[in-house]
């Protein structure tokens, strides 16, 4: 890995650019529905939608929302992978701690660090291979989630080894490992982890309830999202926005880029200086806690753009999106429309009294002509999922009464970086493989 200086800036005071940032409106207004029945009405969003990094529509190759359940095969694989990682970690630590000679101990530490770096490079290749195979229809959506969850699990194990090696180096007299090298490796391993991948592993292992996942890919990028019991989670990686051959972004510039791209988040951060940035090697991580959730944004030093993000947002903090309502047979069905992969809220009430109704809800996507049972709305009449990318139909049947609502997702409130990705025909499922390499110190 490239050994570069480490910069750590915590709770930075905003620069003039940051101070000038102002909340931005969603990128484009929602498209009005046509041919709707008289009982169908539409309202404007109740408040601003948080901007997101996404796959550019012109470069989108595949997009699918699919329900996932516990799967014994992947569950056993995850357990074996975790056990193997722990065994390898303990073996490495014990081998190094058993050596008294400082020179030999130092060689062992550097050798282990080299191996971790090489595995990080291999994970980059593996991640790109998963995207390429999915685009070529050689992997199913479930298989993509399984593979990305495996990559996530190995990256987390490698991070544990990195931390252990850092501590062993500190305990070794007259020896040190360049802090920039260690931090650059940490940022690289961050590339392969995320809240959606971790949640997919929990679902497939039976540790979390079945849920629906949105998977969207370009030639070198992947966007994942899902809804847990009470939280919307999202992670996006854009390989086209990485440029390891150049370096020159300062910590303040990284903060400026995030403030520019996420004005609503920046304005509502938990405290006036409630953001921190950690940088090393060829990328910077900017972390922000704000009144509606948490944002991790990664800025590439070469492209000077946000190339990866993860967002965690409690459902209770989300806006109502763009509500669309259908009333029939005494049932009032409201869908708070959102962008592809965004948090989609469905509400069912009695049209006369307004009381919530507990009933089964199904969703069908026009492009696939498939219909899936989402579940029951519960005592509050509400159920959450993630939005499909195209026209979809929500259906509720309660006894002899039925209500059906067909609608479309809204435009995605994207970052400025979304316009930089090269356009790719959505019919082209043979993308060229563009692997990213790193230089070891």
From TrEMBL:
Pfam families according to UniProt: DUF7094, DUF7096, Fn3_arc
Signal peptide segment: none
Coiled coil: 141-168
Biased composition (Polar residues): 429-441
Record domain DUF7096: where: 3-207
Keywords associated with the record: Coiled coil
Residue ranges with Low complexity bias: 408-428
Domain Fibronectin-III type-like intervals: 323-404
Domain (DUF7094): residue spans on this chain: 213-318
Positions of region (Disordered): 408-441
InterPro entries hit by this protein: DUF7094, DUF7096, Fn3_arc
Protein name: Uncharacterized protein
């Amino acid at each position: 890995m490239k050994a570069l200086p480490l910069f750590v800036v915590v709770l930075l005071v905003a620069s003039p650019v940051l101070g000038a940032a102002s909340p931005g409106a969603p990128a484009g207004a929602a498209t009005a529905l046509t041919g709707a029945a008289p009982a169908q009405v539409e309202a404007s969003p109740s408040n601003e939608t948080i901007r997101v990094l996404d796959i550019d529509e012109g470069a989108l190759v595949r997009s699918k929302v699919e329900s996932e359940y516990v799967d014994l095969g992947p569950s056993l694989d995850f357990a074996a992978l975790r056990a193997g990682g722990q065994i390898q970690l303990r073996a490495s630590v014990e081998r190094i701690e058993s050596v008294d000679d400082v020179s030999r101990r130092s060689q062992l530490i550097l050798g282990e660090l080299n191996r971790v770096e090489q595995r990080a490079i291999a994970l980059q290749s593996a991640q790109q291979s998963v995207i390429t195979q999915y685009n070529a229809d050689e992997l199913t959506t479930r298989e993509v989630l399984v593979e990305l969850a495996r990559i996530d699990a190995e990256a987390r194990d490698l991070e544990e080894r990195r931390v252990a090696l850092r501590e062993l180096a500190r305990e070794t007299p007259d020896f040190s490992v360049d802090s920039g090298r260690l931090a650059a490796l940490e940022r690289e391993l961050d590339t392969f982890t995320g809240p959606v991948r971790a949640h997919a592993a929990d679902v497939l292992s039976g540790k979390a309830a079945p849920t629906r996942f949105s998977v969207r890919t370009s030639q070198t990028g992947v966007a994942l999202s899902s809804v847990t019991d009470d939280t919307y989670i999202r992670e996006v990686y854009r390989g086209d926005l990485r440029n390891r051959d150049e370096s020159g972004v300062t910590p303040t510039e990284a903060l400026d880029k995030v403030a520019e791209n996420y004005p609503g988040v920046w304005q509502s951060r938990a405290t006036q200086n409630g953001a921190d940035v950690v940088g090393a090697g060829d990328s910077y991580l900017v972390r922000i806690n704000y009144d509606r959730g948490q944002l991790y944004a990664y800025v590439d030093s070469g492209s000077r753009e946000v190339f990866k993000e993860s967002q965690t947002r409690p459902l209770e903090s989300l806006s109502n999106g763009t509500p669309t309502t259908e009333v029939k047979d005494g049932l009032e069905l409201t869908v708070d429309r959102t962008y592809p992969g965004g948090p989609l809220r469905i509400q069912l009430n009695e049209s006369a009294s307004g009381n919530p109704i507990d009933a089964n809800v199904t969703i069908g996507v026009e492009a696939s002509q498939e219909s899936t049972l989402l579940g029951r709305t519960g005592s509050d009449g509400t159920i959450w999922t993630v939005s499909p990318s195209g026209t979809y139909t929500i259906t509720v049947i309660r006894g002899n009464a039925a209500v059906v609502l067909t609608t479309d997702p809204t435009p995605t409130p994207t970052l400025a970086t979304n316009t930089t990705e090269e356009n790719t025909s959505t019919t082209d499922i043979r993308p060229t493989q563009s692997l990213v390499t790193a230089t070891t110190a």
